[in-house]
User: Fold Transcriptional regulator, MerR family from Rhodobacter ferrooxidans.
Amino acid sequence: MNIGEAAKHSGVSAKMIRYYEQTGLIPSAGRTASGYRTYTGTDVQMLRFIRRARDLGFQVEAIGELLALWRDRSRHSADVKQLAQAQIAGLRRKIVEMESMVATLDHLAQGCSGDDRPDCPILADLEGEASLVAPACHSGPGFNR
Amino acid sequence: MNIGEAAKHSGVSAKMIRYYEQTGLIPSAGRTASGYRTYTGTDVQMLRFIRRARDLGFQVEAIGELLALWRDRSRHSADVKQLAQAQIAGLRRKIVEMESMVATLDHLAQGCSGDDRPDCPILADLEGEASLVAPACHSGPGFNR
DNA sequence: CTTGACCTTCCAATGATGGGAAGGCCTATC
DNA sequence: GATAGGCCTTCCCATCATTGGAAGGTCAAG
Assistant:
């Protein structure tokens, strides 16, 4: 199977397959005499593993760890679980952060008449007049930006 | 005021101030005879505006639109409100997506014994045995990855 | 044997930010 | 007035995952 077919069957683009090979996430594929990469069913399964992990928001580095565990027949499921829970925790952190943004924006937008007048609490807040909005919404220690 | 002080007062790093100038988000700063950038109180206020908008998750392109409205004395608050609501909608979309990831991962992690045995539904799911998890959780059209 | 679809490598760009080097400027201290 | 060290300047590179494209080789069907 060449790279195009592997891409179709795995849902990972050919570009990304080459990239993953280049960065060492996956081993180098076999080659035909003319230099084309060849893929087996196992390779496609690995690519689908990667695709699925990406869909779950894992970074490529974490996927490397997952792959290592996947290949390790004597792995401990605790190690896998720990990676998953770290991922959950990271996602939850980002969700909380975004929810705080939404709350602030929603509060500001509700105070905005939304007509043809220029007065707008949204701009006023961005300008720095923070008294118009509850400070607890966005000045907490949770922001990592 | 030179760029270091402007950075300190605005919370935007000197690097980013130069970058914003280079990309046209902010107008070119004045210069001293020896080439140093100079900033006024108004400039710092604009930088703080940018900083605050970044904290609310606006992309730089959207901040450009916000700044244009901020400068426009005859703006309509409806335009500002629309930008804010688009931002809210975008954030909510991402939050939903992440919540679906968390739900899937949480479900998988709960099925994982987390001990020294190798059996692990997390890996099994990543491998492609999607029957272990409700497909509606993550196969919807909302994914933009 | 040509055509079109595929493959190869290499280079570049995205968006927002940080790091660093090489060199110039400013200010305080001696 | 010289010097030190802290700031400034520009320029280049790196990140992270992904896409795009160009230039050129290969394969399969007509």
